[in-house]
Amino acid sequence: MTNNEDINQFLNKVKKMEKGETLDLSSDEDLSIAIMNLISIEEHLFFSGGKTGKTKYYDLLNEVRDMRKGLLKMIIKDYEGEVWCISKHLLAASMRLMEVGTKAQTKGDIKASEEFFKKSYNLYNLFWGLNLGMLKSDDFKSETKNDTPVLSKSDKPLKADKTDFMGKVSGVIGKILDCCRE
Question: In this predicted structure, what is the pLDDT of residue 154?
């Protein structure tokens, strides 16, 4: 199947799901941002424990992790295989790229910051595509290259433009999600 056929199948799924209406996920989007921050807190507690040698940070990390898991279950209701873990890492990577972009912006490197922001946004939208059922595991058929399994839609490096699969997915999902509606 060609990349254009993949995109068309994806767009048809979106149209079926959307049925002419934009999706209102404002509460879930707010919750996803909170989950991103909880993941960051887990990371900081881990490094604080390691740097100081104080195990109380690890105890707090466990409490925050339990909270994050409970909240993530509110968004990710049905999943198979590695979707839970992929979702968590998509949110974590999106948050980190956003922070790196903000730091680049502060340093005056606007071009780099915009690239980091685009990548962050693409990963965030991929999270939603995966968890709204717009992307199924069947969409990513396993192939092999030199006896190494690869995903058919991710043989190319991640780009932040809208000409690759990730950029097109992100663009479509970004259009149908409206976090500003109450």
Answer: 40
Token pair 């968590």 is found at 88
Question: Looking at the predicted structure, is the pLDDT value of residue 113 above 90?
Answer: yes
With contact defined as beta carbons under 8 Å apart, do 117 and 100 qualify?
Answer: no
What's the CA angle centered on 132, arms 91 and 120, to 5 degrees?
A: 30
CA distance 67 to 89: 16
**Residue-wise over 13-45: b if at least 16 C-beta within 10 A, else e?**
bbeeeeeeeebebeebbeebbebbebbbbbeeb
Q: What Å distances lie between residue 6 and 29, 52, 65, 70, CA to CA?
A: 26, 50, 36, 34
pLDDT at residue number 7: 57
Domain definitions of the chain by residue range: 24-134+156-176
- CB of 45 closer than 8 Å to CB of 92: no
